[in-house]
Amino acid sequence: MRICLITAAPDHPLLAATTALLTPRHHVVSLDPEADGAPSAGPPGGAEPADVYLLKSRTTRALALAAALERRGAPVLNSAAATALCQDRVAMAELARRAGLPFAATTAVATLTDLAEAGAPAGPLVIKSRHSRRHDLVARVDSAAELRKLADAWPQEPVVVQEFTANSGWDHKLWAIDGRLFAGLRRSELAPDGRGPTLPLPVGDLPAEWTAAVLRVGETFGLDVYGVDLLDSGGGTPLIVDINAFPGIRGQAGAPEALAELTLRAAAGTAVRRTGLHGSRGPALPVRSYQHPGWVRKSS
Ligand SMILES: Nc1ncnc2c1ncn2[C@@H]1O[C@H](COP(=O)(O)OP(=O)(O)OP(=O)(O)O)[C@@H](O)[C@H]1O
Ligand SMILES: [Mg+2]
Question: What is the DSSP string of 86-112?
Answer without folding.
Answer: TTBHHHHHHHHHHTT--BPP-EEES-H
